[in-house]
Amino acid sequence: MLKIGLTGNIGSGKTVVSTVFSTLGIPVYHADDESKKFLDDPAVKNEILKHFGYGILTNSQEINRRSLATLVFTDERALSLLNSILHPRIMRDFSNWASLHGGLPYVMQEAAIIFESGFRQEFDYIVDVSCPKEIAINRVIKRDRIDGNSVLRRMQFQLDDAEKSRLSDFVIINDGSEMVIPQVLAIHQKLLEIGAKGNDDIASGTADA
Description:
The chain contains 9 helices and 5 strands. It has helices at 14-23, 31-38, 42-52, 65-72, 76-99, 133-144, 148-155, 161-167, 180-204, and strands spanning 2-7, 28-30, 106-110, 125-130, 170-173. Helix 3 packs antiparallel against helix 5 (76-99). The radius of gyration is 18 Å and the shape is globular.
């Protein structure tokens, strides 16, 4: 079974693309959504409080996700520190989750910063959702109802769109000029073929050890 990373910068449309893969029967692990559950883990909570202080707690003594996001998206070191706490746990969780789908040709993780967090090697292939910065900014402004400067602050910690595409194995253009579904279908078919070839190699004993 292949492990596929689905990446792309904020506003690129990763979630829309992941939905298409889901309709094709491919399980998708949404890293951003899954990461939220770790904030309720006592060990994670204590580590975050140790580094970021008790000022990020709500009145009910839970981590205020909005305050934490505001903090880390204005401080590269703070963001790197938070990622170092969360991302290894996310990858272990993803690995356990993927093992539940062993009979499928591939599974997918949707995550914005696969390259930035240093976990490229955990995936067999990377699919990048590419979109011009101006379009992405407008999408996020409408979606999150925040100002353009706030979007730019988040973007500054992500690789340039062109660089992310260069490093990826497949690229989906989501700028409104090309239809997304045919692109997804083409990549899906290619991954099925790659997965089938890998299974044939394993069955014949020719796969690399």
